[in-house]
Design goal:
Radius of gyration: 18 Å
Strand order of the largest sheet: 1-2
Structural class: mainly alpha
Number of helices: 6
Helix content: 55-70%
Order of helices and strands: HHHEEHHH
Strand content: under 5%
Length: about 140
């Protein structure tokens, strides 16, 4: 049985979010379960050999052992979903559009660009891990020659 906490710790190692650490443990768990659930929807179609729906959000564990490579895929997708609100933050966009003289290092435009690039990199890496897993574990018996 894979514990949610194992996945959450790997996810937290991927990000830097001091605000998340200030949440109460219940609120933190709720937020992380939400991210993980969204991440699972991205990979459950590909990871057919693992029943990712066999989980209990109260006990906070999967009813199966989730392989490390699937955990990696889940945590990468969690990172993508964690970054998405930062990319879509209206304040970042407003700062970007209303500032006429940007400083190279700390400008709102540069910040938005860095966040967007980080999001795109995380999304591509998550898709790559998902695709790689699907190729490795593909069921070739259904293919016709």
């Amino acid at each position: 049985m894979t514990q949610y906490e194992d996945i959450f710790m790997l996810f937290k190692d991927n990000i830097t979010d001091p605000d998340l650490l200030e949440f109460s443990s219940d609120l933190q768990d709720e937020f992380l379960i939400s991210l993980m659930s969204r991440a699972i929807t991205k990979c459950k179609r590909v990871c057919k050999d693992v029943d990712l729906s066999n989980r209990d959000n109260i006990v906070m564990e999967f009813g199966v052992d989730v392989p490390d490579e699937v955990v990696d895929i889940i945590t990468e997708w969690m990172t993508v979903f964690w970054l998405k609100p930062y990319v879509n933050n209206v304040e970042n966009l407003r700062n970007h559009l209303s500032t006429s003289n940007f400083k190279l290092i700390c400008s709102p435009a540069n910040l938005l660009d860095k966040i967007s690039n980080r999001y795109e990199l995380a999304r591509k890496h998550a898709k790559s891990l998902t695709n790689e897993y699907s190729y490795i574990h593909a069921d070739m018996t259904r293919l016709k020659s």
